[in-house]
């Protein structure tokens, strides 16, 4: 029997580049696939597709794998971007990376890889897959906790996980950089991309302006006092502190003479009103419970444990929670109220290192 064929998504970044090399070292036949997902303004200063493609080709050359480019821009627009805009228009704050993984990297890409005769697909994500004694596939956190990306992968199902390998799951980012330098990869020192996949590093408000209709409206405090005007609810996120546009607003001073910062706390879409509150721990920013819909379970069914842990945003430690499954949705209850629980973001559940799945936050009840 010949070598197993793995098709790996190569983005031109250091993580997927080292992943390709590791797979080759492990004895797989490796084919690189470069995905082009965005082409509305490819010549702009913010979109680095051309540069990334050159990097990916140079790396493939050093590692000794074939690479081809595939264009998923129309699938991306239909399945990810349209949903992204709908969510923003509705006043929520979506997470496009979660959608992109579910609809492009582990669907359109997986389908294309299978046509190329792949046995497996691979990406440079920091996560792990294992098969448990019952034969089910589990999604686990990466060993490098500071880089773990299981949060973004929580919508993957049994079929997808059974065909996926994550070569970086067991190693630390520092080791990835070390390997890249040792191999003298042309992108060894390339910075990690931090922008939303299709927007790159461009100014976000200016980008959304091109696609969304919006209208200004009042900014009010918790007591109902109008203190300014917002430029459109889509452009604000719960917990936001900078760029609210209330520069002239005098802050109420505390007893010690200090004044607390103002935060975005609520969006009233019906009345086109943005509410702000003063102080990081204002009750309007704290949620003891949340409900989530559009749910997806890695095992194919809801967990049967009531005590689990959850993340309500990516850069956050897991927090213990009570879990109740409903029909098509679930609710979580936290001992410690969670800060700025944001509709549109993902609530992702864990049992230790095992990522169980999650859903899109619909509401976070506030403490007061």
From TrEMBL:
<comment type="function">
    <text>Catalyzes the 2-thiolation of uridine at the wobble position (U34) of tRNA, leading to the formation of s(2)U34.</text>
</comment>
<feature type="binding site">
    <location>
        <begin position="9"/>
        <end position="16"/>
    </location>
    <ligand>
        <name>ATP</name>
    </ligand>
</feature>
<dbReference type="InterPro" id="IPR023382">
    <property type="entry name" value="MnmA-like_central_sf"/>
</dbReference>
<feature type="region of interest" description="Interaction with target base in tRNA">
    <location>
        <begin position="95"/>
        <end position="97"/>
    </location>
</feature>
<keyword id="KW-0819">tRNA processing</keyword>
<keyword id="KW-1015">Disulfide bond</keyword>
<keyword id="KW-0808">Transferase</keyword>
<keyword id="KW-0963">Cytoplasm</keyword>
<comment type="similarity">
    <text>Belongs to the MnmA/TRMU family.</text>
</comment>
<feature type="binding site">
    <location>
        <position position="35"/>
    </location>
    <ligand>
        <name>ATP</name>
    </ligand>
</feature>
<keyword id="KW-0067">ATP-binding</keyword>
<protein>
    <recommendedName>
        <fullName>tRNA-specific 2-thiouridylase MnmA</fullName>
        <ecNumber>2.8.1.13</ecNumber>
    </recommendedName>
</protein>
<keyword id="KW-0820">tRNA-binding</keyword>
<dbReference type="InterPro" id="IPR004506">
    <property type="entry name" value="MnmA-like"/>
</dbReference>
<dbReference type="GO" id="GO:0005737">
    <property type="term" value="C:cytoplasm"/>
</dbReference>
<dbReference type="Pfam" id="PF20258">
    <property type="entry name" value="tRNA_Me_trans_C"/>
</dbReference>
<dbReference type="GO" id="GO:0103016">
    <property type="term" value="F:tRNA-uridine 2-sulfurtransferase activity"/>
</dbReference>
<dbReference type="InterPro" id="IPR046885">
    <property type="entry name" value="MnmA-like_C"/>
</dbReference>
<feature type="disulfide bond" description="Alternate">
    <location>
        <begin position="100"/>
        <end position="197"/>
    </location>
</feature>
<feature type="binding site">
    <location>
        <position position="124"/>
    </location>
    <ligand>
        <name>ATP</name>
    </ligand>
</feature>
<dbReference type="Pfam" id="PF20259">
    <property type="entry name" value="tRNA_Me_trans_M"/>
</dbReference>
<feature type="region of interest" description="Interaction with tRNA">
    <location>
        <begin position="147"/>
        <end position="149"/>
    </location>
</feature>
<feature type="active site" description="Cysteine persulfide intermediate">
    <location>
        <position position="197"/>
    </location>
</feature>
<feature type="region of interest" description="Interaction with tRNA">
    <location>
        <begin position="313"/>
        <end position="314"/>
    </location>
</feature>
<feature type="domain" description="tRNA-specific 2-thiouridylase MnmA-like central">
    <location>
        <begin position="206"/>
        <end position="278"/>
    </location>
</feature>
<feature type="site" description="Interaction with tRNA">
    <location>
        <position position="345"/>
    </location>
</feature>
<dbReference type="InterPro" id="IPR014729">
    <property type="entry name" value="Rossmann-like_a/b/a_fold"/>
</dbReference>
<keyword id="KW-0694">RNA-binding</keyword>
<feature type="active site" description="Nucleophile">
    <location>
        <position position="100"/>
    </location>
</feature>
<dbReference type="GO" id="GO:0000049">
    <property type="term" value="F:tRNA binding"/>
</dbReference>
<feature type="domain" description="tRNA-specific 2-thiouridylase MnmA-like C-terminal">
    <location>
        <begin position="289"/>
        <end position="361"/>
    </location>
</feature>
<dbReference type="Pfam" id="PF03054">
    <property type="entry name" value="tRNA_Me_trans"/>
</dbReference>
<keyword id="KW-0547">Nucleotide-binding</keyword>
<dbReference type="GO" id="GO:0002143">
    <property type="term" value="P:tRNA wobble position uridine thiolation"/>
</dbReference>
<feature type="site" description="Interaction with tRNA">
    <location>
        <position position="125"/>
    </location>
</feature>
<dbReference type="GO" id="GO:0005524">
    <property type="term" value="F:ATP binding"/>
</dbReference>
<dbReference type="InterPro" id="IPR046884">
    <property type="entry name" value="MnmA-like_central"/>
</dbReference>
């Amino acid at each position: 029997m010949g070598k197993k064929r793995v098709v790996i998504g190569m983005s031109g970044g250091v993580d997927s580049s080292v992943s390709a090399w590791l797979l080759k070292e492990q004895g797989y036949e490796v084919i690189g696939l470069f995905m082009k997902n965005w082409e509305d303004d490819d010549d702009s200063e913010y979109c680095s597709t051309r540069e990334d493609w050159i990097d990916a080709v140079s790396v493939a050359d050093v590692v000794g794998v074939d690479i081809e480019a595939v264009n998923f821009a129309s699938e991306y627009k239909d399945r990810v971007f349209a949903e992204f805009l709908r969510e923003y228009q509705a006043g929520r704050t979506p997470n496009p990376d979660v959608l992109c993984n579910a609809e492009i990297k582990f669907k359109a890409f997986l389908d294309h890889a299978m046509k190329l005769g792949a046995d497996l697909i691979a990406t440079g994500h920091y996560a792990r897959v294992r098969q448990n004694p019952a034969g089910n596939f589990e999604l686990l956190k990466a060993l490098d906790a500071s880089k773990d990306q299981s949060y973004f992968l929580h919508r993957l199902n049994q079929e997808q996980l059974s065909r996926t390998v994550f070569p970086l799951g067991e190693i630390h980012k520092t080791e990835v950089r070390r390997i890249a330098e040792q191999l003298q990869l042309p992108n060894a020192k390339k910075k990690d991309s931090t922008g939303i996949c299709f927007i790159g590093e461009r100014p976000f408000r200016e980008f959304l302006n091109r696609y969304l209709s919006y209208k200004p409206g009042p900014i009010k405090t918790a007591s109902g006092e109008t203190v300014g005007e917002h430029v459109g609810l889509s452009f604000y996120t719960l917990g936001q502190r900078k760029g609210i546009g209330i520069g002239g607003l005098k802050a109420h001073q505390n007893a010690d003479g200090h004044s607390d910062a103002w935060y975005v706390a609520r969006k009233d879409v019906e009345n086109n009103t943005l509410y702000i509150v003063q102080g990081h721990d204002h009750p309007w920013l704290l949620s003891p419970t949340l409900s989530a819909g559009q749910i997806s379970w890695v095992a194919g069914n809801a967990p049967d444990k009531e005590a689990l842990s959850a993340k309500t945003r990516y850069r956050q430690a897991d927090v213990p929670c009570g879990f109740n499954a409903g029909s098509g949705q679930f609710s979580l209850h936290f001992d410690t109220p969670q800060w700025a629980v944001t509709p549109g973001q993902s609530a992702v559940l864990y049992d230790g290192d095992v990522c169980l799945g999650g859903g899109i936050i619909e509401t976070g009840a506030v403490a007061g």
